[in-house]
Design goal:
Radius of gyration: 17 Å
Order of helices and strands: HEEHHEEEHEHEEH
Protein name: N-alpha-acetyltransferase 40
Domain N-acetyltransferase: 55-196
Strand content: 25-35%
Bound molecules: coenzyme A
Number of strands: 8
Keywords: Acyltransferase, Cytoplasm, Nucleus, Transferase
Shape: globular
Main location: cytoplasm
Structural class: alpha+beta
Distance between the termini: 43 Å
Oligomer: single chain
Strand order of the largest sheet: 1-2-3-4-5-6-8-7
Helix content: 25-40%
Catalytic activity: N-terminal L-seryl-[histone H4] + acetyl-CoA = N-terminal N(alpha)-acetyl-L-seryl-[histone H4] + CoA + H(+); N-terminal L-seryl-[histone H2A] + acetyl-CoA = N-terminal N(alpha)-acetyl-L-seryl-[histone H2A] + CoA + H(+)
Length: 204
């Protein structure tokens, strides 16, 4: 019996999910020392998080997103947000100030199947206000791309609210594109970047 493409994709996502630490080959990239920022980065799976770390993560997302979510049809539902953030498949890069170890940012991602192909799904990129517009977001996205394509994911996919025009500009500046399966009549876009797009822009 031949193996279907979906089975191959599912295996690829499962292999990446099973890795104890997918950032291991990139340990030298797990810091950001630029534009007055001195930051360290650590990988952690949601099930391994302490309750203190969960509190820090939740408080940053609440600070950044609660008012924005309240204005969209999703609304702000703390219970559902916690379930999503601390799902067993959730993987994180946690970014801290080297000086006082306080949380500066985090990325929540998962290796998953989207439209029948293996992808790195970026659930969240959240920076506290004082570290924005200093190149950290761009750096974290490029780290995500490096990780995704190293483990043979076909694409990076994410959802962005149409009301967050600045955030859309951020993704467009990084050559993310509206996906063909992104709904026309919703309040969000599904954006993505394939390996091909990445290679094209790296060549330029
Ligand atoms: C969106 C976010 C991740 C961007 O990270 P950042 O570190 O501030 O962005 P960078 O400094 O790396 O900027 C990269 C590029 O994005 C663009 N950009 C970033 N912020 C922008 C803004 N507010 N308006 C317009 N363009 C912006 C710039 O063109 C910039 O290009 P440049 O380097 O040539 O100037 C960050 O602002 C953030 O965490 N916001 C709050 C949480 C949030 O809304 N997350 C997204 C949920 S989907």
């Amino acid at each position: 019996m031949s193996i279907s493409q979906l089975e191959i994709s599912t295996r690829a996502a499962n292999v990446a999910n099973g890795l104890p630490d997918p950032t291991k080959p990139f340990s030298s990239f797990m810091k950001f020392n630029k534009n007055d920022l001195n930051l360290t980065m650590d990988f952690i799976k949601a099930p391994a998080m302490t309750s203190l770390l969960k509190k820090e993560i939740f408080s940053l997302i609440k600070e950044n997103m609660m008012e924005i979510y309240k204005k969209c049809p999703w609304g702000w539902n703390e219970k559902n947000k916690r379930l999503e953030l601390f799902h067993r498949k959730a993987r994180y890069i946690v970014v801290r100030h080297s000086s006082n170890k306080s949380l500066a940012a985090f990325v929540h991602f998962r290796f998953d199947i989207e439209e029948s192909i293996e992808v790195l799904y970026l659930y969240e990129i959240q920076l506290e206000k004082s570290v924005r517009k200093k190149g950290l977001g761009r750096y974290l996205m490029s780290l995500m791309e490096t990780i995704a394509f190293h483990y043979n994911m076909k694409s990076i996919v994410l959802t962005v609210l149409k009301s967050q025009e600045n955030v859309m500009k951020f993704y467009f500046s990084l050559h993310y594109e509206i996906q063909s399966h992104s709904p026309d009549d919703e309040f969000y876009y599904i954006l993505g970047k394939s390996k091909k797009t990445l290679e094209l822009h790296n060549e330029q």
